[in-house]
User: Fold FHA domain containing protein from Treponema saccharophilum DSM 2985.
Amino acid sequence: MGFEGFSVGDYALVCDSLDEFVAQSELDVVAITSRIEECRKTISILKEDLSEKQRGIKDAQKRRKVLLSAMADGREVSLSDEEVAVISERKPPSGGDGESCFVLYNGIGRSYTIPLTIGRDIDNALVIPDPMVSRRHARLFFEGGYLFVEDVGSKNGLLVNGKRVPPGGRAIVCDGSVIQIGKSEFSVGGKDGGNIAEPKPSRENPAFFVSGGISSPISSAQTSIGRSSSCGIVIMDKSVSRKHATIIRVNGHYFLRDDGSSNGTFVNGHRVPSGKAAEIFSGDELMLGSVPATVR
Assistant:
């Protein structure tokens, strides 16, 4: 190709453009080289952290083998201050099968005999009416003086203190541990369960809702309660919402659900969260707004 039609000035413009490109590229090279050096330093730090973690894993695995061997042989092993602290922090309610454990579910504390089966089916000791809960979901049991929760083949799994339990796996449960199954959460405690309420001695299903000296039968699958005339049980009190709560019958179990009331729904002094339900039994004391009631 020839250069006819272009002047020396045109060539100079092209050369200037090339000079600018070279100068900018050299600056970019310096910047990239600096970033590479920074990355090398970061990689070096990460490698040190990785080595430290790997050493910690090896030390923990060796220590675990020592403790397992001592447990198998019945030997005593001195524990470090950190290991003693772990025991104090994580030791679960002591006991064995046949003993009771408090379970705080939807704000209501009750005592259950261990082992305790949990699921959606009516045959479970603790029934959770949640479509995300399997018919046979989990169980609580004692083993070696420790309380465990076990996934018994559920579809959606379970979490203990926010950590998922592997399918078919188990996890140690301590005082105050929070277990999540489906959309429901509950916590457990030993015999001295602190703020976990003592259970009512009667566990019979309710047949009547009693308030203000008036007994109303609980005969349908859902019995609405509120100030509205459309409710199955009408309570004309300003502290009661128009659609306050609903008594629900599920597989022979009865639950009281708060329907977003303004002044709350309470079972045995414990507030039922809005949109949630608490299982109720004959003799339980209820409060809708400021109106006391009971079920018999």
Observations:
- The helical segments are 8-73, 81-90.
